[in-house]
């Protein structure tokens, strides 16, 4: 995975502060390829409780993580019981790595 320990800690801190203590964070996509270069950061935030405004939550996490990673593009996918589960959720769940 092309993230440092410090970056992982920063991502976790932002996600927990923004989405709650029970948030689980998965990294998926190109950042898992150690041989790759560049690319955005794809995150799936898994929550046990319903989310009233998932778009706003995803945008907040994306912006805050992007700032901690000096402007890196961050895509955030939210998984919660009240949200439709799409094929991208399955990809993130099966191929992603919990951090």
Structural commentary:
The protein is of the alpha+beta class and 99 residues long. It has a four-stranded mixed sheet, with helices on both faces. Helix 2 links the parallel strand 2 and strand 3. The protein is globular and about 35 Å long.
Question: What is the topological layout?
Answer:
Elements: H1 5-19, E1 24-28, E2 41-46, H2 54-68, E3 74-79, H3 87-95, E4 97-98
Parallel strand pairs: 2-3
Antiparallel strand pairs: 1-2, 1-4
Helix pairs in contact: 1-2
Protein name: Nucleotidyltransferase domain-containing protein
Organism: Candidatus Accumulibacter affinis
Task: Summarize this structure briefly.
The protein has helices spanning 5-19, 54-68, 87-95; strands at residues 24-28, 41-46, 74-79, 97-98. By secondary structure, the protein is of the alpha+beta class.
Characteristic key phrases:
99 residues, alpha+beta, Beta Polymerase, domain 2, four-stranded mixed beta sheet, 4 strands, 19% strand
Largest β sheet strand count, sense and barrel closure? 4 strands, mixed
Percent of residues in helices? 25-40%
Number of domains: 1
**Total strand count, please?**
4
CATH architecture: 2-Layer Sandwich
**Segments where pLDDT lies below 50 for 5+ residues?**
none
CATH top level assignment = Alpha Beta
CATH superfamily: Beta Polymerase, domain 2
What is the count of helical runs? 3
N-end to C-end Cα span: 10 Å
CATH topology title:
Beta Polymerase, domain 2
pLDDT average, as an integer? 94
Sequence of strands across the biggest β-sheet? 3-2-1-4
């Amino acid at each position: 995975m092309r993230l440092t320990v410090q970056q992982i800690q920063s991502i976790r801190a932002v996600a927990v502060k923004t989405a709650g203590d029970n948030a689980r964070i998965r990294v998926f996509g190109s950042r898992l390829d150690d041989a790759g270069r560049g690319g955005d950061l794809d995150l799936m935030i898994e929550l046990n409780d319903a989310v009233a405004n998932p778009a706003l939550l995803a945008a907040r996490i994306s912006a805050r993580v992007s700032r901690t990673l000096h402007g890196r593009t961050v895509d955030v996918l939210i998984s919660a019981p009240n949200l439709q589960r799409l094929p991208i959720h399955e990809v993130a769940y099966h191929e992603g790595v919990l951090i």
